[in-house]
């Protein structure tokens, strides 16, 4: 697919765009840097040229200073204003657009998270350019790779727009740690756009377990668990024995066995852990879309013909109500 469109930038900025430079939009929550958003920096480094980080919110200078330690960043721009804490796109998009224009960036990368998916299309529209979603590869400065049809086809997109607004799939651009770098920290511009949307509240599922999107091990349960009681009885002990995050299929989420935030798949989270161990999941393509890049896939299913066995490295045909407790006990005994 080759796309073209009129250059969206005004002449006052035109000269600045000739150099390759990336703005990596970093996420924060309660003034803590969200490490999974560093995938945007990794993508910028793969592209080449200079990479600048961007953070906004309250008590943000400390976040910017933490981000400055990320290897590969030349500079971190921060905007101190509590109005940006929740990342509402109505005010965050104008903020980002102003800073993109000021910095003359050629590429803007953000994670393909709820934040990035909410924000970047609006930023692209404001710049009269188009957005490219969920890239998994970079071929050149104007050509990017992204999966479509739940990962069943791979699209190579070439874009002619002068500013490339892109979300990146975290599992395809492993994010580093905040160490080894020494970027400069600089205050950005704040257009202080009045936000027509008010943040009311959020209801977050709290867990001491590793974050599902970045965990190195994930245990995941499906409809085969039969009920929330069984899900809660079997999956947490298995996760604890492995030090794993818990995931679920959409059928398990829709049936109320597990929280929505645990859904893995096309309309849930993308994960690529070292180990993905699932029980009572059939392996529908929409589920595979979110986990098939896992290094080792192990499954327990009583139906030996279930499609999950076609992608599994290790498969156990059996009743999960017997096998999961047995496995948990063996792991605990190790
Ligand atoms: P099922 O397909 O019902 O499979 C249950 C499995 O459990 C079966 O294989 C069965 O053999 C096994 N089982 C039953 N009892 C036992 C037992 N005692 N011991 C061992 N095994 C047992 N799905 C997702 O997961 N994530 C998504 O993001 C997602 N997005 C979607 C988006 C769209 C647009 C659409 C149309 C669908 C989407 N789906 C998604 C739904 C997807 O198509 C499947 O319906 C869903 O993944 C099925 O979940 P499941 O494997 O848990 O259930």
From TrEMBL:
Its cofactor is FAD. One of its GO terms (cellular component) is mitochondrial matrix. It comes from Cryomyces minteri. This is Probable electron transfer flavoprotein subunit alpha. It comes from the Eukaryota. InterPro entries: DHS-like_NAD/FAD-binding_dom, ETF_a/b_N, ETF_a/FixB, ETF_alpha_N, ETF_asu_C, Rossmann-like_a/b/a_fold. Signal peptide: none annotated. It is found in: Mitochondrion matrix. FAD binds at residues 223, 249-250, 263-267, 280-287, 301. The keyword Flavoprotein applies. Residues 22-203 form the Electron transfer flavoprotein alpha/beta-subunit N-terminal domain. It holds the Pfam family ETF_alpha. Its main location: mitochondrion.
